[in-house]
Design a protein that fits this description.
The protein has 269 residues and is α/β, with parallel strands linked by helices. The protein has helices spanning 18-29, 44-56, 71-85, 108-136, 165-185, 212-219, 230-241; strands spanning 9-12, 33-38, 60-65, 90-93, 147-152, 190-197, 252-255. The protein has a single domain (9-202, 230-258), classed as NAD(P)-binding Rossmann-like Domain (Rossmann fold), CATH 3.40.50.720. 41% of the residues lie in helices and 14% in strands. It has a seven-stranded parallel beta sheet, with helices on both faces. α1 (18-29) packs parallel to α2 and α4 (108-136) runs parallel beside α5 (165-185). The chain binds nicotinamide-adenine-dinucleotide (NAD). Nicotinamide-adenine-dinucleotide binds at residues 13-14, 16-20, 37-39, 43, 67-69, 94-97, 117, 152, 154, 197, 199-200, 202-205. This is Glucose 1-dehydrogenase.
């Protein structure tokens, strides 16, 4: 059995770092041409380093700067991708941020920033991707599906998280966005799913793994007793985007080393 994304074009938002970079590399190694999105000038070098790893391994792609919370920039990213590569087959809605605060001290700016990237950004990219999928229609030389969207959610789509109300709210909402799109466009053969990572070793959660004490306390939440790596998510993303997963739509898949089994109940609660 081979996971093949040959002849397909994938947009990976936030592909310059962490989980997004892992997914970009996995999709490229399965044959997709990957648009490695990055948000600003500051992340250009990181995006180029990811692209270099892809091309050094024989893969194809480009980097593309776009702030996914800005409608005009998202529309342009999809227009430019279609004009350069003909279409888009796969969207990985990965870009995400945290702006943590005790709830009563959370500013409207902190709330809006997180909802703007984590939820509105996923809405805007999904809308532009689905418009393009419908324009192209099914092309069996690419995939049996008309298009695939993978939202990167979180275990916090079901685990409440004190001090992170904006983040947990954005991830809870992604579940309904994903299921609604899967329902609305199922008959068009567009598949929409979410991957819900547990603790993956990336810059977003550096405080949770960068000292032995922090890592030890994190591992108490993970029955499988290791922190996840970006390729743990990339492997699933490549499979989910491929035709091997053609009957999977409208679902959230947790990649969390068992975190959602609630480890603290392992000794009887
Ligand atoms: P990260 O900080 O390494 O990556 C986040 C990426 O999003 C970066 O490439 C960043 O440049 C990009 N980004 C931020 N704002 C953007 C914007 N406005 N437009 C475009 N790109 C933007 O962190 P990560 O852990 O790789 O996070 C990736 C996704 O995974 C996020 O949605 C995050 O919520 C989710 N997630 C991460 C973990 C984890 O443990 N690391 C767990 C659950 C969910």
């Amino acid at each position: 059995m081979e996971i093949s994304l040959r002849n397909q074009v994938a947009v990976v938002t936030g592909g310059s770092s962490g989980i997004g970079s892992g997914i970009a590399k996995s999709l490229a190694s399965a044959g997709a041409t990957v648009i490695v999105n990055h948000s600003s000038e500051r992340s250009r070098d990181e995006a180029q380093a990811v692209l270099k790893e892809i091309t050094d391994a024989g893969g194809k792609g480009i980097t593309y700067q776009c702030d996914v919370s800005k409608e005009d920039q998202v529309v342009k990213m999809f227009e430019d991708t279609v004009s350069q590569f003909g279409t888009v087959d796969i969207l990985i809605n990965n870009a995400g941020i945290q702006k943590d605060s005790k709830f009563t001290e959370m500013t409207l700016d902190q709330w809006n920033a997180v909802i703007g990237v984590n939820l509105t950004g996923q809405f805007l990219c999904a809308r532009e991707a689905i418009k393009e999928f419908l324009r192209r229609g099914i092309d069996p030389s690419r995939s049996v599906a008309c298009g695939k969207i993978i939202h990167i959610s979180s275990v916090h789509e079901i685990i409440p998280w004190a001090g992170h109300a904006n983040y947990a709210s954005s991830k809870g909402a992604i579940r309904m966005l994903m299921q609604t799109l899967a329902q609305e466009y199922g008959a068009n053969k567009i598949r929409v799913n979410s991957i819900c990572p547990g603790a993956i070793q990336t810059p977003i959660n550096k405080d949770a793994w960068s000292t032995p004490e922090a890592l030890n306390s994190l591992l108490h939440l993970i029955p499988y007793d290791r922190i996840g790596q970006p390729e743990d998510i990339g492997n699933l993303a490549a499979f989910l985007a491929s035709d091997l997963a053609d009957y999977i739509t409208g679902t959230s898949i947790f990649v969390d080393g068992g975190m959602t089994t609630f480890e603290s109940f392992s000794t009887g609660g």
